[in-house]
Fold:
Amino acid sequence: MTRTSPFSSPRGNTPRFSEIALLHHALTLLAPFATDDGSGGEFHGPSLEDFFPPVIFFEGTVFEINRVILIRFFVVAVLLLLFWLGTRRMKVIPGRGQSVLEFAYGFVRDNIVYGALGEKDGKRFLPLLVTMFFFIVGMNLTGIIPGINLAGSSVFGLPIVLAIVSYVAFMYAGIKKHPGAFFKNSLFPSGVPWPLYFIITPIEFLSTFILRPVTLSIRLLMNMVAGHMLLVLCFSATQFFFFSTDLPFTLFGAGTLAFGFIFTIFELLVAVLQAYVFTYLTAVYIQLALAEEH
Structure:
C-alpha cells in the first residue's frame, strides 16, 4: 500500500510547499509598499486571523456561531435545496437539472465508489461516499465565491470530523467483514518472521490506525488554507495598487488582478480534486479493510 504524506498535493505525490513558498515570496516583494501614505492607503496582506472570525451569535456558549459556521450552514442548505429541486420530479427522460445531478452522481458512483470497491461492496457504502464527495465540494467552493471568500473546510474542525467519519467507515467495514481477524492481520501480517513483528507491528499500527485520519484531514486543510491565502494576497494587492498608489505602481494592479483570476480557476479545480482525493482514499481504505487477506 502506498504511504501518503500529510503535506501531499491533491494527487498525493507532489508537495504543495511551492504555493506556500510563492506566497511568502510575494509577501516579501510587497513589503516595501506596506506603508501608510497618510491617506489610509495601507496594504494588508492575508493573515491566519481570517480563519478565526469573531463570534456573531451565542458568544460564550458551546453553540458559538461565527462566519465559518454560517458558511457551513449555507452550504448544507444549498446542497439540500439543489438535490431536492433536482430529484423531486424524476422523469424517464430527464430535464436539464435532473441530467446534471445524474451526471454528477454517476461520476462519483462509477469513478470513485465502484472504481475502488466494485459494484457489490460499493452499493453498501454508496450513500456515505456520495454524500462525502458533494459535501466537501460544496465546502471547498465557498472559498472562491465572491462575498464569502472562505472555504468551510479551511478550519481544522471540519476536516478532522470528515477524517473521523472515514476512519469509522474503515473500522466498521473491517470488523464486520473479519470480526475475529481484522486487527490481528492488520498488525501482524502473515509470512513475516516473528522477530520482525517488533518493528513492523508498531509501524503498521501508526500507519493504519493513527496517520490515516491525520493525513486525510491535513491534506484537505492545507490545500484550502493555501488557496485562500493566495487569493486574498492577489486581490488585496490589486485593491492596494489601484486605489492607494500612483503611476507607475498602479500598473502592478493589472498583474495581480490577472493572477487572481488565474488562481481562482486553479482553486476551482483544486476544490473538486480535493473532494475526489478525500472520497477516493476513503473508498480505498474501506476496500483494504474488506480484502480477503484480513
Helices lie at 17-30, 67-87, 96-141, 157-177, 182-187, 197-244, 252-290. The mean pLDDT is 85. DSSP finds seven helices and two strands in the chain.
